[in-house]
Amino acid sequence: MTQSPSPSFRNRDKEMVPRTLLWAMFGLAMASLAITTFAVVTGREPVAQPAQAEVIRERWIVLEGRDAQAVTVRNPDGSVLLDLAHGGFVTVIQNGLATERRKHRLDPLSPLRIVEYANGRLAAEDPLTGWSIELYAFGADNKAAFERLLDQK
Known about the structure:
This protein is α+β, with helices and mostly antiparallel strands. It folds into 2 domains: 7-41; 55-151, no CATH class. Helix content is 38%, strand content 22%. It has helices at 7-10, 12-15, 19-41, 89-103, 140-151; strands spanning 55-65, 71-74, 80-84, 112-117, 122-125, 132-134. It has a 6-stranded antiparallel sheet with strand order 3-2-1-4-5-6, with helices on one face. It is extended and about 75 Å long. The N and C termini lie far apart (82 Å).
């Protein structure tokens, strides 16, 4: 009695990634590695970094995540600045910061510095880990969420 191949194996070759595409992906990865290695070995200076500028205003805040969407924004003294049931982009930044601090085994409730620079940059900077994120790069609405934090009394 001969058995026909099961339906899951009939079209197996059609579902696999083409070998040419795999070689192309491997080539891309190796080219990226070669370019990066060349830049490091030759001491090439980093490019496309934000220009230094004067600090216009800054604020230290504590981001306390409560669940997947909610975040409480506190002043460093512990007083509540904002309680956001749906924090949106603020929650995204809090999650990224919490992950970075967890990697370094640091207190997740240490203050974070929000800085607005004269050249229009807006950044969140963590002095404990060196982690920073350019908030203006995520669009006007997301930047505005952190500008409102700077404006809070």
